[in-house]
Automatic annotation (TrEMBL):
A GO biological-process term: secondary metabolic process
Record's protein name: Uncharacterized protein
Secretion signal, residue range per the UniProt entry: 1-33
Gene Ontology MF: a single term: acyltransferase activity, transferring groups other than amino-acyl groups
Entries under InterPro entries matching the protein: AB_hydrolase_fold (IPR029058), Peptidase_S10 (IPR001563)
Similarity-based family: Belongs to the peptidase S10 family.
UniProt-listed Pfam families: Peptidase_S10
Highest taxon, organism lineage: Eukaryota
Keyword field: Signal
Species for this entry: Anisodus tanguticus
Alphabetical list of PANTHER family matching this protein: 1-O-ACYLGLUCOSE:ANTHOCYANIN-O-ACYLTRANSFERASE, SERINE PROTEASE FAMILY S10 SERINE CARBOXYPEPTIDASE
Length: 459
């Protein structure tokens, strides 16, 4: 009897201990689940082995890791063990981070002149940021690029949760890549990232103060033409005046009759304001709002961004890659079409280690579809910039001076509203002896810069 009793007690203790171990595993599971990364040495369309280190993979986020976020990681070509680590978030929401790899700051580009209808070919970009930095290009939120959900319900996401998913991704990625945990860390992004990225920085900062592991060596962040606050559209009119698209007499009439309000949710109080806005709509009908000097190519659709381009919500031509006009050869949309053809090739997906059957069709930007599954609850990030500056984090905010969608005037205005003292006043910055833009530095380690003749979103 004694022996039996001892046996029963031992079994009970064993089950109790097992339960505690399992409970502990569940509690720390978000940081133990390793990223599934694979090295990519060759890419279809690129001649020979890649001259840089490329890793792709997935990290599961959410309570049951039901959201599988895909990423591209490229090591610095200089000193990866010492160079900064950047997590890059492409805007949208719903735009693939592959935009960053081939159109923005990454080491690859498409050779348009050699395209003959077969698989697009790739070349090397001489001025890639990966020359001096390690960069993670993250496909987020779920249902963006090659990221996918394991359940039908998991495809839905709220913006505040999307921020948490980015933070969870970063922690898990660093657990799997501990050699980068001490590198200086920066967050970077453009367009809609201007809303969620500052909130992610706040989560990281709060995590540091709470002692969350792994400890992130956060230094700052950078944003290009960032969507920041709801009144952005009100600054488009001064931009149009400066670009010669709207004449001065019409501009003065707009100021008088619309009282500076041009947003889509603004209901004009007089007929003259409505008439003026209709004239502006006509003037913008064939204007590329992301770079007013570029041709407008694609199909006639409603703009997919949270702030549509047409002032009164009318349908207008936009940068959708459903059709390419011969007049658009060499344009940005033409280059975008090459990524659609390339990324949907089975050979490419195999080389990138994409999980078979998880994505029916890769889209450079899935903004229309994501509107049905993505919930916007906040559209103002100014307060986060104040918090970050007060904690000494560096920030670079830059604007392409030909981007009408998020004009540099609106960015300059919200930065001015922070009331930081000016350390280095408005001046030129140059490349090879030529003016490349203008810049101003503020106290609290914030810098604003324009990029001459450029757009910065998906360039």
């Amino acid at each position: 009897m004694v022996k039996l009793r001892y046996s029963l007690i031992s079994s009970s203790m064993f089950l109790h201990l097992l339960f505690l171990v399992l409970l502990l595993v569940v509690q720390i599971r978000p940081l133990q689940a390793a990223a599934t990364g694979s090295i990519v040495e060759f890419l279809p369309g690129f001649e020979g082995p890649l001259p840089f280190h490329l890793q792709t993979g997935y990290v599961g986020v959410g309570k049951e890791e039901e959201k599988q976020l895909f990423y591209y990681f490229i090591k610095s070509e200089s000193e990866p063990e010492k160079d900064p680590l950047i997590l890059w978030l492409t805007g949208g929401p719903g735009c693939s981070s592959f935009n960053g790899v081939v159109y923005e700051i990454g080491p690859l580009y498409y050779k348009q002149k050699e395209y003959n209808g077969s698989l697009p070919t790739l070349g090397l970009t001489p001025n890639s940021w990966t020359k001096v930095a390690n960069i993670i290009f993250l496909e987020q939120p779920v249902n963006t690029g090659f990221s996918y959900a394991t359940t039908p319900e998991a495809i839905n996401v709220i913006d505040v949760d999307a921020c948490k998913h980015v933070y969870e991704f970063l922690l898990k990625w660093l657990v799997d890549h501990p050699e980068f945990s001490s590198n200086s860390f920066y967050l970077g992004g453009d367009s809609y990232s201007g809303i969620i990225l500052p909130r992610v920085v706040q989560l990281i900062s709060d995590g540091i103060e709470a002692g969350n592991k792994p400890l992130i060596n956060l230094k700052g962040y950078l944003l290009g033409n960032p969507l920041t606050f709801p009144e952005e559209k009100n600054f488009v009119m001064p931009f149009l005046l400066g670009m010669g698209i709207v004449p001065n007499d019409l501009y003065q009439s707009l100021v008088q009759n619309c009282k500076g309000e041009y947003r889509e949710d603004f209901a004009p109080t007089n007929a003259q304001c409505t008439q003026d806005l209709e004239i502006v709509d006509e003037l913008l009908w064939y204007i590329n709002d992301q770079h007013v000097l570029d041709p407008l190519c694609g199909s006639e659709t409603e703009s997919p961004r949270p702030f549509p381009s047409a002032f009164r919500g009318r349908k207008r031509r936009s940068l959708e890659e459903n059709s390419i006009s011969p007049n658009c050869y060499g344009s940005l949309v033409d280059r975008h079409e090459l990524s659609n053809k390339w990324a949907n090739d089975p050979r490419v997906q195999k080389a990138l280690h994409v999980r078979k059957g998880t994505v029916d069709h890769w889209a450079r930007c899935r903004q229309k579809g994501i509107k049905k599954t993505y919930t916007f609850t906040f559209m103002d990030s100014i307060s986060y910039h104040v918090n970050h500056s007060s904690k000494g984090y560096r920030s670079l905010i830059y604007s392409g001076d030909h981007d009408m969608g998020i004009p540099f005037q609106s960015t300059e205005t919200w930065i001015k509203s922070l009331n930081y003292s000016i350390v280095d006043n408005w001046r030129q910055w140059t490349v090879n002896g030529q003016v490349a833009g203008y810049t101003r530095s503020y106290s609290n380690k914030m810098t604003f810069a324009t990029v001459k003749g450029s757009r910065t979103r998906g360039s």
